[in-house]
Amino acid sequence: KPVSEATAVKAPVLPDAQTVTEVKHWTDSLFSFKVSRPASLRFRSGEFVMIGLLGDNGKPLLRAYSIASPSWDEELEFYSIKVQDGPLTSKLQHIQPGDQLILRPKPVGTLVHDALLPGKRIWFFATGTGFAPFASLLREPQTYEDYDEVIITHTCRDVAELDYGRELIESIKQDEMLAELIGEGFADKIRYYPTTTREESPKMGRITELLKDGTVFADLGIEGGIKSETDRAMVCGSLAFNHDIKAILEDFGLREGANSEPKEFVIEKAFVG
Ligand code: A2P
User: Fold this and answer.
1) ipTM field
2) Which of 87, 109, 184, 218 could pair covalently with 47 via S-S, beta carbons 3.0-4.6 A apart?
3) What is the DSSP letter of 243?
4) pTM over 0.90
């Protein structure tokens, strides 16, 4: 088939159509994918957009997805769960390179550097697919301009659910293009702290419990725990997780900030449950 014929078949039929360029399945319930980036789309690392497909009724079926790629990237990456009877993800999990999806080019969100006051150490607390905005922020030069130390914790039920995050961090540490962009040695600032709650792994337990009993600080050699003068945090997980972490951070004296009022921590719900 001549190329022109093949591409003619794939001509945009959706509103705000973008083309899928890559799909990777991580587990039975997790996958990541990349799509073309609209030339006009500007976003801040950590923000989310609405993406989706046409529903059976012909209307767009959209959900909020954190952009997992950094703001400078040419493509947009997303990280998603697959819910077998989920209205969107039951379909979305079958997308293939060359397929199209809908992407509303209106990025928003609170997990942005602008919403935090200056500090020395930043904590990224994620559960499950809540890792996605941090996949963006870990490749964002400002993260390393603003902080001396970047601690990313990721709590999942099973070991395989950590793969996306772990592989991403490993690839960041070996990425010469990133080192050139951000500065040699930037990756040495990253400290990765994965935990599982169901399947056996080297570090087990909810991060909330490990913070409360001081295990995290002992493991990372941090004296005095989290301090409001120097520590900043971004949180992305389930509602219950966000609620519990918020209480812990407030106990350490940190206050929740927003774009309009930067403070010491910010929270966003991991979308698509
Ligand atoms: P747990 O296995 O103890 O529920 P889920 O798959 O339900 O979204 O959860 C993702 C991870 O987040 C799991 O490891 C889960 O631990 C953990 N988690 C769920 N709720 C909380 C919470 N309120 N505080 C801390 N961790 C939580």
Assistant:
1) 0.98
2) 109
3) H
4) yes
